[in-house]
Amino acid sequence: xxxxxxxxxxxTRSAGNEGECVEVxxxxxxxxxxxxxxxxxxxxxxxxxxxxxxxxxDIKKGRFTF
Length: 66
What we know:
Layout (H helix, E strand, L loop, with lengths): L7 E3 L11 E4 L6 E5 L8 E3 L1 H12 L6
Antiparallel strand pairs: 1-2, 2-3, 3-4
C-alpha cells in the first residue's frame, strides 16, 4: 500500500511515554493506517474504517491490557 500521501498524527495519549508513540493516518481513501512513530519508515497496520471502529470500541471497553 502506498502511504506517500498519508498525513500522520500522534495519539494525544502518547506524550510522556519515553518515545512510545502511535501515529494514525485517516486521510487516505477507505483505509486507516497506524504506525510506530519511532520507526516511520517501518511497517504500518492497515485497517478498514469498520475494523478501526471495532478496534477503538474494544479499547474503550477495556478488552486489551496495555
